[in-house]
Amino acid sequence: MGAGKSDADRRIGRRALLAGGAAAAVGTAVLARGELSHLWWRLPGVEKPRVAGAVDFLGAQWVAASPANYRRADRPDDYAIDRVVIHVTQGGFTSAVKAFEDPDHKAAAHYIVRKDGHITQMIRELDVAFHAGNREYNERSVGIEHEGFVERASSFTDAMYAASARLTAGICKRYGIPVDRQHIIGHVEVPGTDHTDPGRYWDWDRYMGLVRSAKTTKS
């Protein structure tokens, strides 16, 4: 599942706020130039319109994660998206949804794929989800959780693989992400993580083949 309370990403933005077109420092903190370059969208009239319940993947069900588990952004305008990170929930679908709705969890992925192929979106792709345990990777990636356990091969069903592959293919199309193992990675491959998902039973060859097939299929 997504990174827990150690996720450094959740500390972002507490030092600074753009309001009314002016930069204000909290306490004596000073806004770094890099932070300012990623906060321009908070100026009045700049942020992209948001529609309640809107999803980025057709057919997904919207269930909102707690705002404590992600950071509002304006990707890919402020952060380029060039990765998809594959996770496993280490539990059931319902428990994962509840965890991402819990503000004390301090982590969530953009999507959860259920065993039967149902897809739930909990964070918009334009926002930075706290899922990878690495600030840079959170900013540049979309996180997809999969219901199940890393040590149970039965967790990864045909329906799950197929639905997840279509989801990942759509993300790759939207942002021009190459369909390869350098850009579609497991949580275990994120620098600095202590997670092992998706684990040895996740069939990468099969999954990547499905993603390539879905990406080339005309919608």
From TrEMBL:
Pfam families: Amidase_2
SMART domains membership: Ami_2
Keywords recorded for this protein, A-Z: Cell wall biogenesis/degradation, Hydrolase
Boundaries of every N-acetylmuramoyl-L-alanine amidase domain copy: 70-199
InterPro entries named among the record's database cross-references: Amidase/PGRP_sf (IPR036505), Amidase_domain (IPR002502), NAMLAA_amidase_2 (IPR051206)
EC number: 3.5.1.28
Catalytic activity: Hydrolyzes the link between N-acetylmuramoyl residues and L-amino acid residues in certain cell-wall glycopeptides
SUPFAM superfamilies: N-acetylmuramoyl-L-alanine amidase-like
Enzyme's top EC category: hydrolase
PANTHER family named among the record's database cross-references: N-ACETYLMURAMOYL-L-ALANINE AMIDASE AMID
Protein name: N-acetylmuramoyl-L-alanine amidase
Organism: Streptomyces coacervatus
